[in-house]
Amino acid sequence: MAERTSFVRPYRAMLGARVRAQSSYRASFGLDLVTSLLIGLVELAEVWVLYRSVDGIGGLDLTTALLVFGLADTAFSIADLLVGHLDTLPQYLRAGTFDVFCLRPQPLLAQLITSDISLRRVSRVMVGLTVLTGALIANHVPLTPGSVLLVLLSLLSGTAISTGTFVAASGAQFFLVDAAEMTNSVVYGGRYASTQPGSVWNRPLIALFGFTVPMAFAGYLPTLTLLGLPAPWHLPTWAGWLAPVAALWTGGLAWLSWRTGTRHYQGGGG
Known about the structure:
Layout: H1 2-24, H2 26-52, H3 62-83, H4 89-95, H5 98-103, H6 108-113, H7 122-138, H8 145-173, H9 180-194, H10 203-212, H11 220-227, H12 243-264
């Protein structure tokens, strides 16, 4: 127990320092929160405007689409708050400052995760949670142990899937230092795809965001299971319960990508 506390203490101290540094400049911190809130509201408005113009898309009406958005956006926003800064890894590699992490006797990924935290992203989480709460009420989801468990499991699994996607993309950036847009297209494209009905995807998108980077399990499939709607792609109605399996799959991809990337890294040359 004492060893575990000693292991966690330096990371807790670093995160605490980051939080205090950001919150000490209150005006700047407040503007960051408002800006992040507006971005979240704009993304919500996209869904609202789109579904207000038609009766439904891909078998989902507005209230159902908001439930997909609430689950998927909340999960991604939590992951973005915790590890979203991993997409700045190319800056460390180009500047040669990643070597500093290599000199410390701590796991590289843990150091990189605790090197920063953007508290402004809290407002994105609040937008997602608010939409999720409203959508659960609007869809008359019963407050049963099964439905509560499925919602919590979906949020945890969705967060794990998004976190794994960030980590896997970071591992790939050891090879694609000047092409971070390629990995960002999967990470942030996956975030957008996860808030849309998967039934309208074409085959390449189904292969990518349905199973390879299984963002469909972050919001779309759990929503269908929660509401008892039929699932696409020959999957059973209870496919939403497979979200933890999808999270484990993404975790394996993230581990493999990060391990391959760090073994490939030969230093900044400084």
